[in-house]
Design brief:
This protein has a single domain (2-176), classed as P-loop containing nucleotide triphosphate hydrolases (Rossmann fold). It contains seven helices and nine strands; from the N terminus they run βαβββαββαβαβααβα. The chain has helices spanning 10-20, 50-58, 77-85, 96-105, 119-129, 134-151, 164-176, and strands spanning 2-3, 24-26, 29-31, 45-47, 62-68, 71-76, 89-91, 112-116, 157-161. The strands form three sheets. The chain has a four-stranded mixed β-sheet. It binds guanosine-5'-monophosphate.
Length: 181
């Protein structure tokens, strides 16, 4: 499971990891937030209405779910089942409340914190990604700083996402050491 501040380059890292290993797949989450330019429904997220999300909560369709920035995000059991029935490793990209839920239910889950090499780099990535004004970036930065300071220590592994290939190799080594499920 991968967690890190917005703009830490997690998406790129996960994509590279999945491309590098055919035994690893990304568990696609459901979210109520609108798609960003370039995002594809079913690949990046399952984009659903608030009503549909609530229905899924009521149906017990989620391994975990949480609210973040006024939107809801959750990992559907169906995304996991598809991956794990094929004997592959599921990689989840989830925020902290989700991490805590997974950790309490599945103590064996491997938790990886993706850390941007610097806070400045993080701000730069957020700006490049577009769609966020200065105030929104400042807000995201405040969240990110807090995450960096207090959260990283609670993970099994911290991977610094400075160089993509190095970070992919680091996560790959972590996966190789995981006990077989
Ligand atoms: P974004 O809107 O930037 O794609 O994601 C915002 C936050 O939601 C990120 O921290 C991301 O890790 C988290 N997130 C994405 N999918 C899920 C999910 O299924 N469950 C939880 N708990 N968090 C998620």
């Amino acid at each position: 499971m991968v967690h890190g501040p917005g703009g830490a380059g997690k998406n790129t890292l996960i994509r590279a990891l999945v491309a590098a290993r055919d035994d690893v797949s990304f568990a696609v989450s459901a979210t109520t937030r609108p798609a960003r330019p370039g995002e594809i429904d079913g690949r990046d997220y399952h984009f659903v209405s608030h009503e549909r999300f609530q229905q899924m909560v009521d149906d017990g369709a989620f391994l975990e779910w949480a609210e973040f920035n006024g939107q809801r995000y959750g990992t559907p059991w169906s995304s996991l089942a598809e991956i794990m029935s094929g004997g592959r490793i599921a990689v989840l990209d989830i925020e902290m409340q989700g991490v805590e839920q997974v950790r309490s239910r599945y103590p064996d889950a491997v938790l990886v914190f993706v850390k941007p090499s610097s806070v400045e780099q993080l701000a730069q990535r957020l700006r490049e990604r577009g769609g966020a004004d200065a105030e929104a970036i400042a807000r995201r930065m405040a969240i990110a700083r807090r995450q960096l300071e207090t959260e990283a220590a609670r993970f099994d592994h911290v991977v610094v996402n400075d160089d993509l290939d190095t970070a992919v190799a680091a996560i790959s080594r972590i996966l190789d050491k995981m006990p077989a499920i």
